[in-house]
Description:
Blueprint: E1 7-12, H1 18-30, E2 34-39, H2 41-50, H3 55-61, E3 64-67, E4 84-90, H4 92-99, H5 106-116, E5 120-125, H6 132-143, E6 147-148, H7 162-176
Parallel strand pairs: 1-2, 1-4, 2-3, 4-5, 5-6
Helix pairs in contact: 1-7, 4-5, 4-6
Amino acid sequence: MADSSKRLVVGISGASGVIYGLEMLRVLNALGYESHVVLTERARKNFLLETDHSLKEVEAAASRIYGDEDLAAPISSGSFITGGMVVIPCSIKSLSGIAHSYNANLLVRAADVTLKERRTLVLVVRETPLHRGHLELMLSAASQGAVILPPVPAFYYNPKTIQDLIHHTIGKVLDCFSIPHELFRRWEGG
C-alpha cells in the first residue's frame, strides 16, 4: 500500500491559470508524491487556450487522472486515504459547489470528502476583483475548514520569471501540507 501521507488529490478547475495546476503536478512528482488528479472540462479547454502544454503533459505528470464525471472514482470516498487536496486554480463555480456541498461533479465531491474527513483542503481561488458573493463563498468554505490561498505574488525574494511567481504560490500550497521544498527564498528579515 502506498504511503497515504504522500498522496494528494489535485483538482484543476476551469479558472484562468491552469498552468498552476500543471506545475503543481510536476513539483509533487519531483518530490516523490502520488497525485490523484481531477480535471474539469473547462480546465481541459483552458490548457488549449492559455498554454502551449498538451493534456498529455498533464496526464504524464499525474500518478492517476480522473474525469470530472467519474463519481465512482476512489477519491470520491473517505475510505481512500490521502494527505489532503488542493484545487489549483479554483474557479468561483468550483468554490461555490464546495462551499455548498453541491457534489454534482468529482472535483467538488473529492473536496467535500476532504473536508468531511478533516483533511487539509487548499483552494487557490483565481478571481479578481471580488464582490461580496465571492467573499461570502470564501468565508463559508473557510468556516468548514478549507484554506483560502489566492495566487498572490510576493516580491521580497526578487522573482525574475513567471515560473518564479508560479513556484511561490505552489510553495505556499506545499507549506499548508508541511511538505518541505526550496521553491522560493524565505523571508529572513530586512
